[in-house]
Amino acid sequence: METILEMRDIRKTFPGVVALNKVNLRVRAGEIHAIVGENGAGKSTLMKVLSGVYPHGSYTGEIVYEGQERRFVGIHDSERVGVIIIHQELALVPLLSIAENIFLGNETARRGVIDWMAAHTKTQALLKKVGLKESPATLITDIGVGKQQLVEIAKALSKEVKLLILDEPTASLNENDSQALLDLLLELKGQGITCILISHKLNEISRVADSITVLRDGSTVETLDCRAETISEDRVIRGMVGREMADRYPPRQPDIGETVFEVRDWNVYHPLHTDRKFIKDVNLQVRRGEIVGIAGLMGAGRTELAMSIFGRSWGRRISGQVLLGGKPVDVGTVEKAVRHGLAYVTEDRKGNGLVLNEDIQFNVSLANLKGVSRAAVVDSGREYQVAQRYREKLRIRCSSVAQKVVNLSGGNQQKVVLGKWLFTDPEVLILDEPTRGIDVGAKYEIYTLMAQLAAEGKCIIVISSEMPELLGMTDRIYVMNEGRFVAEMPTAQASQEKIMRAIMKAS
Amino acid sequence: MNNETSNTTVSTAKAAAASDKSTLDYLKHNFREYGMLVTLVAIMVFFQYMTEGTLMQPLNLTNLVLQNSYIVIMALGMLLVIVAGHIDLSVGSVCGFIGALAAVLMVQYDWNFVPASLLCLACGALIGAVQGWFVAFFRIPSFIVTLAGMLVFKGLALALLQGQSVGPFPESFQKLSSGFMPDLLSSEGLRMTSLLLGVALAAVLAVAGLRARAGQLKHGVQVEPAAFFFAKTAVFAALLVYFSYLLASYRGLPNVLIVMAVLIFLFHFITGHTTIGRRVYALGGNEKAAKLSGIKTERLSFYTFVNMGVLAALAGLVFAARLNTATPKAGLGFELDVIAACFIGGASASGGVGKVMGAVIGAFVMGVMNNGMSILGIGIDYQQVIKGAVLLAAVFVDVYNKNKA
Hints:
Structural class of chain A: alpha/beta
Radius of gyration of chain B: 23 Å
Order of helices and strands of chain B: HHHHHHHHHHHHHHHH
Largest sheet of chain A: 6 strands, mixed
Helix content of chain A: 25-40%
Strand order of the largest sheet of chain A: 6-9-10-3-11-12
Number of strands of chain B: 0
Oligomer: heterodimer
Number of strands of chain A: 24
Shape of chain B: globular
Largest sheet of chain B: none
C-alpha cells in the first residue's frame, strides 16, 4: 500500500520549550492511523504543523504528501490539497444553520451572491453521507455535540477531503454518538479517505485503527501495525508512559495525621446543559499533612470538581457535603470558602488567577485585603511588606513588587498566584495543574513549597495531568474519569500503567 | 590604596548616574500620570496667550469652575463605572430629570430646598440602583440598559415639566451654584478667607505628601526620586495658591468648588486607598480572578451604578441652580462630555484602568477648550470638531505609549 503522507524529522520549538523533536510519521493511503500519547506529548502540535496552522519555516523537517514535498503556510494551503483537520473545540458558529456552517468561507456564490438553493441541495447530500437526518436550515446550537461533530465531518467532505485529521473527536460524546462516529470513519475508509485519529480511548483505537503511532515527550516512540499482529492495550500504554523518573522531586517524610477535609456525595450539573450531570458521587478525604493527587485526562472533570467545591464557582444544582475537622461547613461562596481556610490555585493563571495589568503587590493581597487594611483603608506600607515577604519566600524573580505581573514569566506568575493564596493562610490548598507551562527549575521550587506546606500540617490536593508529578509528590492518588472517581490508590502502590489502565477500563 | 580611591570614585559616579537615570526612568514610566497634567497646563497657557489674558482673569476663572462643576462631579462616578468595565449613557438625561424634579418640588409645590434636594439625591440613587440591578445581576450590557435609561429619563423630564421651563428657584437653593464662600475678614477687594483656605489646603496637601513619602521610605517602598518629589509638591502648592489668589480677587471660592473639591478628595481616597476601590479595579481588570478571590463582583458593579446615580442627581441640582430654571433640554449631551473626560484622563474602555485625578484633569481639558474657544469666537461647529480631535488624539497617545512600553 502506498504512502500518502510522510513527516520527517519534525522539530518545533516554542520559547523555552521543545514541543516536538525529531518526529517521524508515515501514513499509508486509505488507512486509519491513530496517534496516542499523554497530555503534552505533542500530538496536537504535530497536527498543527501538518495542517499549516504553524506555517512552513516555524518548524524544521519536511512534509511529503502525495509524493511531493509540501510547504503549507496556512490552513488554506493544506485544505486545497485535501488535508483537513477537525479540532477538539469545534469551529462551528452556533447561531448559523448547518448549511451556512458547512459552506462558511467556501460559499457557493457567484460574484459574492450566495446561491442558497444550491447550498441546501449540496448540504442535503453531504448530511446523507454522514448519516444525519437534520434539515440543512437547523441551527447548530439546536443539535447535540455528537451531531455537531458529524456536521464538521460533512464540512470536511464538502472540501473534497483526502486526509482527514480528527483531534479527540469522541472526547465530549456519549457512547452511542461515539459508536456512530467510529462507524462513519470506517465507512469513509471504505471510500478511500485516509484518516488520522488522535484519541485517548484505547478501546476505540483498537476497534478502528490500522496502525498506531506513539508519541512521548515530543518524540515518536514507535509505530505499531495492528493488521500484522494484535496489539494489546497494555502494550500501547507501556509505550506511552515508558519513561524513567529522574530525581526531580524533593525528598519528604510524610507525617500524616487525622482526616481534616472531607467531601461527601458531591454531585454537580453542567452550568449550561443543565440536565447533564458532570460530577458524579465524588467522595474525597484529605488528612493532615497529606498530599493527595487527582489524576485523569483532560475533560475528566477535575477542575470542575475543585471549582464547584471552592465557593460553587462552577456548575449548577450542586449537592453534597463539605466537612472540615468532621463538621459540615458552608462553602457556598468563595468568601466563605476562604474564611474556612480553603484556597484554590487555578490552572488558568492568566484567565482566572491574576489581574495582569496590576502589580505583584496588588495581586498578592487581593484575596486577603483585610490582612493589609484597617477599617477598609489599605495600608500600602504593610501591603508592600507582605508582598516582599512572599517575593522572598517564593523567590519571585522581578525588579520589584511594583512590577506588573503581565511582564513576569510563567513560573513567576504562578508564584504570585501561590503567594496570593498563601497569604490567606489556608488549611486546605487545592493546586490545579500547579506546574503547567513552567520551567524545570521553577517546578522544583513549587514542589519544595508543597512539601514544606504539608510538613506544616496543611492538607494539599494536587490536580495534575503529569503523572510523574503525581507519583513523585503525592501520598495517595484518586483517579478521575468522566466525572467519577474510578480508583484510589496509595502512591507507593501506584504506577503510570496502573493509573492509565484505571482510566481506560472506565471509559 | 590608590586602587581603592578610584573604586570609590567610580562607584560614586555610578551612583550619581544611576540616580539621574532613575529620575529619567521614573518620568518615562509615569508619563501617563503626569502627561495629561502637562497637557492641561499647555492648553491653558495656549489659550491664555491667544485670548490675551482673558482666560485667567478672576471672573473668567470663576465661570470656568462653575461651568464645569457638574461635568467633574459626574466624571467621578463615571470613572468608577468605567473602571468596573461598564459605561453609563444615561447620566445626562438623569441630570436633566432630577433638575426638573427639583423645580417641580421647589417651585410648584413650594418645598423647602433641603428636603427637596435630599429627595432628589435619593431618587438618583434609586435610578442608579434600577439600572445597576439589570447590569449587575441580569448581565444585560450596561450600554443597552443605560441607553434605555437615557431615553426614559429624557422623556420623563419632558413629562414632568410639560414641555415648559420652570423657575426661578428659591434664593437659598441658587446659592449652591451661584454662592461664594462668605468672608469674615474682608467684604471688599481680596477675599482673605478664601485665599487663606487655599494656602491652608496647599500646606495640608504638601504635608500629607511628605508624610506618605516618609511612610513609604520607612517600609522600604521604592519612592519617586527626591528632587522630583519636591519639585512636584512645590509646583503643585504654588499653583493652588495662585488659583485661590485669582478666585479670591473676584468673589472668593464658589460654594460649588468646595463641594467639588471635597468629592474629588473623597473619590481619590476611595479609589486609591480603600479595599472597595481596590476591588473595583480588580473587577474591571479581571472579573473571573476577582470572583475567585472572594470578591462579590455583582454587588460591586451594582454599587458603582448607585453611586453614579447619586452623583448624576447632584450634578442635576447644581446645573438647575446655576441656570435658575429647569428646562426640558437640560443635561442634553452631558454624558458624552463626562465619558470623554474619563477617556482623556487615561481610563481604559475595557475596564480596570483609570484614575480619579485623570478624569478631573480630562474634564478641565474639555472645559478650558470650550471656554477658550468661546472667548476666541470659534463657532460651535468647529468647537465640536476640535474637541473630537482632541479626544481621539489623547487616547491615541495613551494607547501608543502603552504599546511601546
